[in-house]
Write a structure and sequence with these properties.
Belongs to the endonuclease V family. The chain is of the alpha+beta class. Helix content is 27%, strand content 26%. Bound molecules: magnesium ion. It binds 2 DNA strands through strand 1 and helix 2.
DNA sequence: GCGACAG
DNA sequence: ATCTTGTCGC
């Protein structure tokens, strides 16, 4: 057991600093045929949580596979260390899929992170799959509000380096924060998210995963 | 010392 | 993330 799951903030931060060297920001030659959305829902009182992964056909956005799993938070919520809380359950759900998605769309940031290794980078590196992050709010980095039309965007920078994009996916609707996780570029991640959000603020992948884990937590299976 | 702080 | 009622806009 060379490496157990981190228990302290120091251990978790060290793990991020160690793994971030494996991040690859190169786009894949071929566009993804299937895209997966991942999300987690938490129970009120107890420590239960449900992780869900829903795979959609990238062209039609129709669901082609889905998996859910029950688990426990693997780490307390600490801004910057959020990934350590949900990753075990998410990996569990990914293992239950009957297909291998070409891209993971994570609910949280990727490169736009204090140590440039947010959830999307972490999940991408551990699975080896292309991954990107979509945050509903800002975490870190300098940014400015983009124009008010769908497609308008502005960069998120850290030390002068562009690590992501503030992207408006719908006219006059609050923008989302996009950043690459693994095996994708800032521009590539931004284009993918815009294509995945033709009608609503959040990507269809995120919406599908959100609905799936909430439904499972509510009690039903399907 | 005082804000900011993914989900 | 989750707890919450009504309210505004398409
Ligand atoms: Mg979430």
């Amino acid at each position: 057991m060379s490496d157990a799951w981190p228990t302290t903030v120091a251990e978790a931060e060290a793990e991020q600093d160690r793994l971030r060297a494996r991040v690859d920001l190169t786009d894949s030659p071929a566009p993804p045929r299937t895209v997966a959305g991942l999300d987690v829902a938490y129970a009120d009182g107890d420590e239960r949580l449900v992780a869900a992964v829903v795979v959609l056909d990238a062209a039609t956005l129709a669901p082609v596979d889905e998996a859910v799993t029950i688990g426990r938070p693997a780490f307390p919520y600490v801004p910057g260390l959020f990934a350590f809380r949900e990753i075990p359950a998410l990996l569990d759900a990914l293992d239950r899929l009957t297909t291998r998605p070409d891209l993971l769309v994570c609910d949280g940031h990727g490169l736009a992170h204090p140590r440039r290794f947010g959830l999307a980078c972490h999940l991408g590196v551990l699975t080896g799959l292309p991954a990107l992050g979509v945050g509903k709010t800002h975490l870190t980095g300098e940014w400015s509000m983009p124009g008010e039309r769908r497609g308008d965007a502005s960069p998120i920078t850290l030390d002068g380096v562009t690590v992501g994009t503030v992207l408006r996916t719908q006219d006059r609707v609050r923008p989302v924060f996009v950043s690459p996780g693994h095996r994708i570029s800032v521009a590539g991640a931004t284009a993918q998210v815009l294509a995945l959000a033709p009608r609503f603020r959040l990507p269809e992948t995120t919406r599908a995963a959100d609905h799936a884990c909430r439904a499972a937590l509510a009690g039903r299976t399907r």
